[in-house]
Amino acid sequence: MSEIVKSQDRTWEVVAHLSSLSMLVGVPFGNILGPLVVWLLKRGDSPSFDAHGKEALNFQISVMLYLLIATAVTAGLMLIVIGILLVPLLIVAVIVVPMLDLIFVVIAAVKASKGEFYRYPLTLRLIS
């Protein structure tokens, strides 16, 4: 019986990470809403799931904040012309960051399926 529970916990841990990919199918803010909904529904079931859910949610919030800050800085600097030089960097960031996000989410999901915990890089630990 406990093996079934562990298997279900692992499945939900994987879902917590992969739910952030709902953004790719057109769900607005799905990268944050997916892990948030899964975490809120299942966080009390096990400490392990709670940790995975928080990690996935913190990473997605961090990625969103990094892109928003980069956009705001570029837009603000465009008012004094220097920001125009940053537009190509912002375009590269908007292309590269989601690709890295996908790679890290897949790595975390694979690790979760093996019963391991994955700490995303450059993550702000906003939810603890």
- Secondary structure class reads mainly alpha
Number of helices: 4
* Structural shape: elongated
Taking the alpha carbons of the first and last residues, their distance comes to: 30 Å
Give the helix proportion (percent range): 55-70%
Main beta sheet strand tally, sense and closure: none
Count of separate structural domains: 1
CA radius of gyration: 17 Å
Number of strands: 0
Q: H/E element string?
A: HHHH
Give the DSSP E fraction (strand runs of 2 or more residues).
Answer: under 5%
Oligomer: single chain
Please tell me the overall pLDDT. Answer: 89
Q: Which segments are poorly predicted (pLDDT under 50) over 5 or more consecutive residues?
A: none
Describe the 3D structure.
- The protein is mostly helical.
- The chain has one domain (2-112).
- It has 4 helices and no strands.
Map the helices and strands.
Elements lengths: L1 H17 L11 H13 L4 H32 L8 H27 L15
